[in-house]
Write a structure and sequence with these properties.
The complex is a heterodimer.
Chain A lengths: L4 E6 L3 H13 L4 E6 L2 H8 L18 E5 L7 H10 L8 E5 L4 H9 L4 E4 L4 H18 L7
Parallel strand pairs in A: 1-2, 1-3, 3-4, 4-5
Helix pairs in contact in A: 1-5, 2-3
Chain B lengths: L5 E2 L7 H5 L9 H5 L4 H21 L2 H29 L1 H15 L5 E5 L5 H20 L31 E2 L4 E5 L15 E5 L6 E4 L1 H7 L3 H5 L3 H4 L2 H17 L1 E10 L5 E12 L5 E10 L1 H43 L4 E6 L4 E4 L1 H7 L3 H4 L13 H14 L1 E9 L5 E10 L9 E8 L1 H59 L1 H36 L6 E3 L1 H11 L1 H7 L2 E4 L6 E3 L1 H17 L7 E10 L3 E8 L31 H11 L3 E6 L5 E8 L20
Helix pairs in contact in B: 3-4, 15-16, 16-20, 17-19, 19-20
Classes of the chains: A alpha/beta, B alpha+beta.
Chain lengths: ~150, ~725
Amino acid sequence: MRQRFHILLVEDSPADAKIIERALRDSSIDARLTVLRAGEQVAEYLGRSLQCQPRPIAQAPPPDLVLLDLNLPGMDGLEVLSTIKGHPEWRACPVVVLSTSRSEEDIARTYRGGANSYFQKPSEYAGYTELVQLLHRYWYETALRPKLR
Amino acid sequence: MGLIQPVAKSARAHDSHADSLAPLPLPPRRWLLFERSNQELLVHLIGWAAASVLATVLGSAWAGLATAFIGLIALGVLESMRRTMIQQDWRMPLRQFLRQLLQWGEGRPDLAKIRLPNGSQQEWIELARTLNRLGELWGRSGIGRQREPIGSGSDDDSNSKMVLTRSGMSPCLLDTGEFLVPADSTPSAIISQRHDEMINRLHPVTFAWLDSSPAEQRFLGYPLEQLKAHSFLEVVHRDDRELARQQLTSAIEKGEAHGLVYRIKNARRETLTIELHVGVRYGTDGQIAHLRCLMNDITSKVHADRELRRRTRELIRANENLLRANRDLQELKDRYSDLYQNAPVMYFTMDDRSVILDCNDTMLRILGYSRDELVGRQYLDVLDPERHGSFQANYAIFLQEGMMERASRWRKAGGEFIDVWLKAKASTAAPGKPSFTRVSAEDVTARNQLQDQIKINAVRLQVANAELSRKNHELDEFSHVVSHDLQEPVRTLIAFSEFLLTDHADRLGEEGQQHVRYIIEASRRMRALIQALLELSRAGKIAGAFAAVDPRELISRIEQDFDALLRAKHGRIVVAHDLPILWGDLDRLGQLFANLINNALKYNTNEHPRVEVSLEERDPQGWCTIRVSDNGIGIDPQYHSKIFQMFAKLHPRDQFEGTGAGLAICQKIVEAHGGTIQVESERGKGASFLVTLPLLPVDEGPASEFNGNAGEPT
């Protein structure tokens, strides 16, 4: 039995989070959406702080997909990315970066940081529905993913 | 003829004598009459004897004796009379006569000298006989009988046995005891005696040689036999020949000619100059027999003359040259003096004790001293007192090194100070002359002030530039950040407004829905403006280094991007082949052309919109101007500057959509590349935008650079 597709959304703007939620719903995508408001929460979610060594106790299982906003208050999106990609278990999890920026430097840095994809946040709601459908199709229906426990 | 001994003649200038037509003295008649031969004596004796016999026969013996006696006495008396006369009476006139002849013919080069006997009567008689004989000879040669006297006013004694003519000269008595005889009075015998005179006889018509003295033969280098076969004119130099002919002909007419000068060429092919004296000799029949010429070699004289003239000319020339050189020298001196005195820098010299020896006018003028006041003064008097201390040390170093260049400070006569730039060179001491120093000084006070001012200005400029740069950067950053951060709330606005419409349409009602629609529209516009702002701020930022950009590639990509728009409007883009490779930021230039082409297509109500991109101009400095023109609605000239303003629109929103930022962005991009953008347009006549952009620099260009230019170098 397949578990529900778990998407972890790291987004500080509640409005943007709402939009994604709605887009999933309108696209009839059956997925569990966890929203984290800040980069620090990701570290908590990961079950460890930055300073400590990884300890394999009471960790949350990695999601099937991470949607990461670059523009986060406090801990920056790129830092979150490096945290995730630095974790021995979580680095296997696909991270799709969403950003308002189109700049070459941001894109390059993001990919260099290990992100799996980079998307510009759509300007219209229709773009959101398209995007989530695309991501679901790609990461859930088509690509094969490792089983992460 | 032992009495006659030819003696070397002395050449004398005969001109005066020859020219004076003094009448030839005539021989006294008397002494001629007393010439008597032996036959005459015999006749007298026979006559006397006959007379005596006759008297004896006819009378008595006493008659005969008386007659013989008388006759004897008579004879005796006559004989003694004759002798006396010979001794006294005719000897004196003879001498006189001869002396006269001598004076007349003195210096005549054509005369030979014969020694006059000092001796006895016998000798005198013999002389007289010789003279007569000569006279006969002359007569035979046609001289003596000539009746034509020479000169004017002389008596013509037709009864005299000898009438002397010019050509035929009687012997002339020289006061040295010699007398002259015409050299050719006896033929060859006398001529052959002449060893050193060049005398000849020429045919009067052909001027061929008839006779020639040995000296002449030696001189000419031809033997007599050879000469006889040729005319005199043949030895004469070609250029003088005609003249010679004419002069010889006139000599024949006049009877003589003197001092004729010709060039001749002898057998040794030497060209020599001779002076000729010609005399005409006549025969017994009164006709011309020959020409007698005496030749003098005046070659060396002519040469000497020529040489003298040449030397004189040379001297004159040398003199002129000297004068000219003098003048030039003076001019040079003046020029150098002027150069030195009025040079734009100050010059002075000082000795080894740093006393000013001399200076130029410029120095006097600038410092405000007169020459007396400055020359002889110590250099230290001019030097700024504050620098006196270090002067000695510096001077010592300078003397060691031989040259020096430094800034210094001097005091003018009025007490003011000026900054000077000194260059000094020590002179290498010539032996005997003390060493001294040459200095040039430039008043650099003004220049220093200017430089200081420039430095200050430069610093100010730098500061201003830095400030400007910083502000610009800040502005760009600001725009970027702001527009970035603005996008999010705008997105939220739009999305949730739409959710409102979608989810709560009933609750909103018609009016409510319309309100929400307005909100959505406004939000969309805001988003467009923000994006435009973002683009604008990015346009000023050049992301990376410049590179080669092919505009044709750019435009073909734009064509692809605008494919839908082009098809919708039935439009086309025409690109010229000769667009050069540009030097700039690929993205920005892409944006530039995209905006321009977009505008060209957008503001176009033509059935077939057409955009043309062509090369307008190419500048050898490394720039080119590209023209993007369309057949659109055009822009009224009064708005040509407004259209580049940020967010300026000329048309209402519903006619042509857009933020109005396109051209502002274009301008910013063009300016970021250092170029310019201009518009040419009129309402209804399409629009042309001219952008000036840098070209690919020459030394970095690939071969493809030449593609569009048919080999034309950049």
